[in-house]
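Fresh eyes needed here. Have a critical look at this protein's tokenised backbone.
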Amino acid sequence: MKKRTGWIITGSIVGALAVAIAIPVVLDFQIEKTMYAIADRFVPEPGWTLGGESASDHYQCSGMTGPCDSFGRFYHVDVPLSRDELATKISAAGWVGKVSGGCEPQPEAQSQVLLCTAEGVTDGYRFTVQLTESVGAEILNVRLNKIP
């Protein structure tokens, strides 16, 4: 009888640990899937080149700061983007926000210069889209951060 009780307790502990491990993994997968889906709504122009992606989840952040799931992409932009074009792209993605800065190219820039920024909130995430220029090359950064 004691052996049976021991097996039941051991089985219960192992089962509880498996559930405790599985739930965060499933939740992280859902958060990542959501971030990709939101980011995919921002459609690059045909001449843009994806320069890279980065994602971080709350396990990579300080436990004291709370959730900080984030996702980012950056594109090399072949043709300068105007302020109105950036606002149109944000709207077409279904995101609501505002654009600050003129988005005007700075051909005399010798280092990285921020041309304009779009910021707002969509689906529980803050988004930031920044157009920068560095010695004639324009880069568009798209970043999503989970709102705690």
